[in-house]
């Protein structure tokens, strides 16, 4: 039986390093051993090559130790699809396996990766389809939508009711790195407070997604390959955050369109009973999953395609 997603791994040989004398060859018959040997070599150039070969997620120097631990651990790295060919089906990423690992250090390393934020500089946001300019102050935005594993940490620590698609207080198996869904805006705000943040405003969300120019999608105006999880992909569910490296926004935010709608703190009505959500979801096609796509829901409403992302203020000097 054909798998629901196909696998294409880059099996090319790695050539010489910059110094010309030190060579690291990727032996495709012994991928695991070669991967671990390159990490253990403590060669910065080798580590960068490993990141280019295996790492789909945001990386900065603060994540170096976490990435080294994760890349050393057997998490299905060699089976990870390098090219997504629809239909994707039940994709499980190495980060998903890490979050289910028996070693707490491995689980914590994966959470550290998922907790990453990026600084969005002050600038002019173009709001809505008419691109109305609006000045925004600098702020931080979470790189990914909030995942099941992150939200479970919150549920355990606070005793808050888990989402309705969880069983026995636990999210679906190996979906720790999928966006959490079935969260109300009130749930999302409580989570944001728990992690020392807040929900982004509608202008902040749009600015983080489309950058400073008038673009329809985070990467530009055209769809030339699978760059996000929308109905066209055929996944029929959420996908792991970070799956679509080609869909990252100019500021470094992943999954800004598709996958799940994301709550903002911006009210839709004068009474503040309804809140704006952005970005579309896996259930919708590209026409409804763009940088300018939004909907509004009661702040106490939850659904199978609504999640959230976190923002933080940057203290002015």
Structure, explained:
This protein has 317 residues and is α+β, with helices and mostly antiparallel strands. The protein has two domains: 31-84, no CATH class; 116-313, paralog of FGE (formylglycine-generating enzyme). It has eight helices and nine strands. The strands form three sheets. The chain has a four-stranded mixed beta sheet with strand order 7-6-5-8. Strands 1-4-9 form a three-stranded antiparallel beta sheet, with helices on one face. A two-stranded antiparallel ribbon has the order 2-3. Strand 2 and strand 3 (132-136) form a beta hairpin. Helix 3 packs across helix 5 (104-114). The termini are far apart.
Largest sheet properties: 4 strands, mixed
Let me know the average pLDDT: 86
> Would you identify the CATH H-level superfamily of the largest domain?
paralog of FGE (formylglycine-generating enzyme)
State the CATH class of the largest domain. Alpha Beta
Helix content: 10-25%
SSE topology:
Blueprint: H1 31-40, H2 44-54, H3 64-72, H4 94-99, H5 104-114, E1 117-120, E2 123-127, E3 132-136, E4 139-142, H6 148-158, H7 185-194, H8 202-210, E5 261-267, E6 274-278, E7 294-298, E8 306-308, E9 311-313
Parallel strand pairs: 5-8
Antiparallel strand pairs: 1-4, 2-3, 4-9, 5-6, 6-7
Helix pairs in contact: 3-5
């Amino acid at each position: 039986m054909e798998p629901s997603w196909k696998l294409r791994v880059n099996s090319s040989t790695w050539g010489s390093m910059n110094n010309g004398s030190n060579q690291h060859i990727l032996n495709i018959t012994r991928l695991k051993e070669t991967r671990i040997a390159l990490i253990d070599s403590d060669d910065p150039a080798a580590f960068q090559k490993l990141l280019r070969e295996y790492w789909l997620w945001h990386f900065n120097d603060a994540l170096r130790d976490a990435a080294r631990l994760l890349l050393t651990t057997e998490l299905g790295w060699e089976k990870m699809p390098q090219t997504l060919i629809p239909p994707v089906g039940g994709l499980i990423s190495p980060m998903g396996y890490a979050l289910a690992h028996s070693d707490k250090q491995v689980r914590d390393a994966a959470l550290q990766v998922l907790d990453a934020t990026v600084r969005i500089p002050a600038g002019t946001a173009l709001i809505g389809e008419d691109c109305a300019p609006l000045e925004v102050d600098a702020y931080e935005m979470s790189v990914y939508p909030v995942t099941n594993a992150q939200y479970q940490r919150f549920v355990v620590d606070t005793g808050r009711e888990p989402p309705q698609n969880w069983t026995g207080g636990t999210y679906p198996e190996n979906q720790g790195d999928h966006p959490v869904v079935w969260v109300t805006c009130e749930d999302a705000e409580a989570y944001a407070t728990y992690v020392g943040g807040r929900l982004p405003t509608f202008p902040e969300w749009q600015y983080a997604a489309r950058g400073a120019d008038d673009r329809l999608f985070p990467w530009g105006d055209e769809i030339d390959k699978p760059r996000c999880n929308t109905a066209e992909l055929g996944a029929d569910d959420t996908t792991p955050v970070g799956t679509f490296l080609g869909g990252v926004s100019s500021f470094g935010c992943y999954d800004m369109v598709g996958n799940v709608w994301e709550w903002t703190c911006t009210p839709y009505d004068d009474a503040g009973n309804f809140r704006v959500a952005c970005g579309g979801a896996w259930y919708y096609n590209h026409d409804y999953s763009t940088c300018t796509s939004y909907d509004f829901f009661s702040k106490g409403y939850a659904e199978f395609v609504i999640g959230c992302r976190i923002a933080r203020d940057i203290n002015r000097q």
